Known about the structure:
The protein is mainly α. It folds into 3 domains: about 1-40, no CATH class; about 60-180 and about 230-285, no CATH class; about 185-225, no CATH class. The chain has helices spanning about 1-25, 30-40, 45-75, 95-100, 105-130, 150-175, 175-180, 220, 225-240, 240-265, 275-305, 320-335, and strands spanning about 130-135, 135-140, 185, 205-210. The strands form 2 sheets. The protein has a two-stranded antiparallel sheet. Strand 1 (about 130-135) and strand 2 form a beta hairpin. Helix 3 packs across helix 6 and helix 4 crosses helix 5 (about 105-130). The chain is elongated, with a radius of gyration of 34 Å.
Amino acid sequence: RELEQLVREERTLVRRERLASEREGEGHNVFYRAYLTLCAVFRPLKLIFGLLLLVISLVVFASMLITCIDKLKNSVCGRHCGYLLGHTQIFNPINWLFTFTSRVFPIDYILFLLLTLLFFTSSVVGIASIGIRFLWVTLFKIRSGKTSPNALLMATVMLTLMTLALNYALAMIVAPQYATFGPQTFCDRPSGRPDAQPDCSNHHKAVRPCSERSDNPLANLVCTPSVASTFLNRITVNFPFLGVVDFWAQFAFLGIFVLVFVVMLFRVPKMDEQQMDEDLREEEEEGLLASTGRRFGATWQDITGKAKGVKRSDYGTVSGEGAGAGAGESAGCRAG
């Protein structure tokens, strides 16, 4: 038993040595080794980019928490309408950033697209890192080139549900004012005539951002809410239970974010050596099976006498070229 255990450990060390040499570029072409060199050179930039993403994530977390508190404190009708917010009364940094950058087209669109990609890619990376679980029980693992079809199907369903949740979070929680009215404003001054528009050219302080709780009736004529916000608000009003569930789910998301952030801040990353050894063992078995298939195919070709890709001339028969050559020789003999 001890000898078998030592043999297994030796095989494991050989596999790890081979894996380390492959990661260092041994046995690969010049382009792959140049790619590894570039990765090592730009590793400080990768660290800076990671810190930047961390700061952005914390700002987004603060914006979501501020909006949730604002909805909970200043909602029009509370849980009876799904905690709808007529106007943001607490400063939201993400909302302010989108509204400020909307003055220069299309910077706000680009930032909103990048924020959406941040949420979506974070969801994909999270599924790939922890796999598919039910509470603490791991059901499937996501591995490169070795994911089972059931795991791919479950991951696709989870990403679809995350996309639906992302629609509500971006429009109602992250930047509600920007997602509803964008940079739209109206002039909050009385007009001289009923059919005339108010003039704010000399009264810049009277220019107000559009909101759903404006006292001026002109705001309802000038301000146009977005289609996505109108759709979500109607669902929330007609089905308050869904609005309440979506609203409190944001608090659950923020709580899990804080918990995971604190744990990962003090936890030392560990390498799953057992999983790595299993992957290397599977690769070795696949290589052995492939070589066995090639040896079996060569043996079968030796038995049958037929090799793939080799043209054999028919013995004792005359092909087209041979017949032409024979006819030419016979004609030359008659002429001689």
